Amino acid sequence: MNRIQGLRYNPYALLAILLLFIVFVFGVLWSLIPAPPKSIAMATGFQDGLYYRFGERMQASLKKEGVELQVRTTGGTLDNLALLADPKSGVDLAMIQGGVADVAQYPHLVSIAGMFYEPVWVFYREASFKGIPDGLTLLTQLKGKRVSIGNPGSGTNSIAKVLLETSGMQSADLDMQTLTPQEGASKLAAGQLDAVFVVAASEAPLLNGFFNLPGIQLMNFVQADAYTRALPFLTTVEVPRGLLSIESDQPRLSRHMIAATATLVGRETISPAIVSLLLQNAQGVLKSYSRLQKPGEFPSTNGLDFPLQIDSEIYLKDGPSFLHRHLPFWTAVWVGRFARVGIPILAILIPLIAYVPALRELSLRIRLSRIYAELKVIERSAADPATREQNRRALAEIQARVNAMKVSALESKEHYDLKGHVNMVRERLKHES
């Protein structure tokens, strides 16, 4: 017991206790708040599509922060959703085209943010619509035509079907072909198609295969506002003359267009630190996506199918946290993790510290009461000659224990009072002898 009590005055023992406490805190940190992964995978789309190019640019940006982003090519949005919904796929994030997903089928997915507009481009052969003065302006004008609606699994395929159905068109009303954008461009050039649906951002490289084709025009959606009212995931956008190519003057006239929003989607278990990192780097990448969206318009909370992830909502409203604004990513992560565990621990310890003086006083009183109890026994039997020698040895032992006691300055009075009382009992023994 004396050895344990002496540890309170041993600096090396106190240092060891402090180190053990620090180890305990970091153990709690590691187990309760795991570090964000150093490697994540994103499902994108075709290699010459903007999803893939966006993923590549994010990959280069995240690499500077010490996080590896694996960019996977896929057939499009539906493939991406299937991969993201499968926990064994290894995919953590996916680019999803707005309006394609049945949210009820994917209850564990959340939106990180909308990234850019993806207009619905309908390229058509002028020769196929000669009898129409203004060219193709209504989807109902596609009746009886050969039309590519995009490859299965792509967002283009899903949105094209929705638009045609909203326009009152049935599959029997036209010759639908499910082709990739590259296959559609090739057949359109060869005269084997009358129109091709492509849903892609204006910066997407795959559009280059269309606007240089001779005799090809871009549909003007004169009912754009009506479609956005009927399908809320769509947005009306204006495509100025020459937007796709100033050199080739494509399109040759300004066009009313409808656009979905390309959204970065993840699982609801995604690390908050990764969310902040993704959004911070996406802002830098999206600065060059300025053809249709206004500066600073994206990342955005508009046009999302899935619920917005809570940390994304905070970031898009207030910006990055103080730590992520002023510290490197991994430093901010570790400081943040320590704070998230350390602050609750301190909240528990600080009130307990207030009881330390009372506990010390209680401990002293217990020790004093035990000694006083022994002194009382000696004093009562002081006049008995048979116990005189035993009492002297007991008193000498008590004296040694009292002298060995270490107390604080505030406890000195009680200590000296005890020494005085020991001396009083000693004098009583001398008097009785």
Question: Which key features would you list for this structure?
Answer:
D-Maltodextrin-Binding Protein, domain 2, 10-stranded mixed beta sheet
Structure report:
Residues 6-11 have low confidence and may be disordered. Among the domains are: 103-320, Periplasmic binding protein-like II (D-Maltodextrin-Binding Protein, domain 2, 3-Layer(aba) Sandwich); 355-432. The protein has 15 helices and 10 strands. Strands 1, 2, 3, 4, 5, 6, 7, 8, 9 and 10 form a 10-stranded mixed beta sheet that branches. It is α/β, with parallel strands linked by helices and 433 residues long. Helix 13 packs antiparallel against helix 14, helix 13 (356-380) packs parallel to helix 15 (412-432) and helix 14 (388-404) packs antiparallel against helix 15.
CATH homologous superfamily name of the domain at 103-320? Periplasmic binding protein-like II
Count all strands and give the number: 10
Instruction: Compute the CA-based radius of gyration.
Output: 39 Å
Look at the helices and sheets and give the structural class: alpha/beta
What pattern of helices and strands is seen along the backbone? HHEHEHEEEHEHEHEHEEHHHHHHH
Q: What percent of residues are in strands?
A: 5-15%
Mean of the pLDDT scores?
Answer: 85
Distance between the termini: 35 Å
Question: Which parts are unreliable, with pLDDT below 50 for 5 consecutive residues or more?
Answer: 6-11
Number of helical segments with 4 or more residues: 15
**Percent helix among the residues?**
40-55%
Shape: rod-shaped
CATH architecture of the domain at 103-320: 3-Layer(aba) Sandwich
- What is the name of the CATH class of the domain at 103-320? Alpha Beta
Main beta sheet, described?
10 strands, mixed
Q: What name is given to the CATH topology of the domain at 103-320?
A: D-Maltodextrin-Binding Protein, domain 2
